[in-house]
């Protein structure tokens, strides 16, 4: 990037905890026996599934017409950063603060609760329901109103790359000089439509997901939010490169040759001015579906070889869909700030799939003296691919 873009602050809520400190402690202490996924049939009546649920209390928002669970979760993740945002508003003016949020579910859960079919076959509708809570624009509109910012504001919805793309969009706003600071976030909350939709594709695991294992049987779903303040003010972590591609191979299946994924990783490295051997850790998209893991293993092997230290953290959080790219970017941000060499763990059964391109670095520690550069992959429906590169300053 021609201008240095820094990740100054971050906040998070997910199955690992309700703030950055709790998430960091639980993430880096996780072992093969650790399980933060909760068995429930709350979103799949009669079928118990392990879900990465947020169990902490989510306070109502101060804007009653924006009071969806999605927005409450976003507010919970961002609340610790309110003093910093207030300072930015005073320093730069509210018109110089941007907001970009990635989501895919928005307020669908509220619509499900409002619209029900009774035993008599009639449709019952809650007149208090407001469709505005379900619009894709809802989370970014909510944040701008809540934070009283008036800079560029929009919602990014590109399925599982949405949260990561929020950071990419934030970087462009800063590069162009349109904003002096940008709040970038990803958020998605569980709803019956999501669980039923993925179940209809036969890609939901009945037990905790096992990315890259020969025994993998599909994804575990989850929910959460992660948010960041990005600016040109120097900080310990810099967003050094963004790689994006769209191969449009299939509406829901990845290109089995991984061409778009390879392009995104190579583009991210080029923009960061790094060679593959300079990356100390790779956070894999790692959904644990048969096709996605095969594609990603092939693509990673092509770009990095088989020995790069890597892991998928979805067995700990579930696949949080639009929030995944942001949550996993936050895990990378935490990794770069540590003084030890601990990496996010790869929690699985250690049963290697011989049909996959080898990834000998799965769950292995870094051999570097200090973790200086990391990459996070996100791949989405429609062939949308994203790789973020962060470096330690």
Query: How many β-strand stretches?
Result: 14
Q: Going across the major beta sheet, what is the strand order?
A: 7-4-8-9-1-10-14-13-11-12
Count of alpha and pi helical runs: 11
pLDDT average, as an integer? 95
Q: What's the shape?
A: globular
Please bin the fraction of helical residues.
Answer: 25-40%
Strand content: 15-25%
Global Rg: 20 Å
- H/E element string? EHEEHHEHEEHEHEHEEHEHEHHEE
Low-confidence stretches: none
The secondary structure category is alpha/beta
Largest sheet: 10 strands, mixed
The termini sit apart by 15 Å
Description of the molecule:
By secondary structure, this protein is an alpha/beta fold. 30% of the residues lie in helices and 20% in strands. It has helices at 20-29, 69-78, 82-92, 108-114, 138-147, 162-175, 192-200, 259-272, 290-304, 314-317, 324-337, and strands at 5-13, 38-40, 49-51, 97-102, 115-117, 123-125, 153-156, 181-188, 224-231, 237-246, 281-283, 310-311, 373-380, 384-392. α2 packs across α5 (138-147), α6 crosses α11 (324-337) and α8 (259-272) packs across α9 (290-304). It is globular, with a radius of gyration of 20 Å.
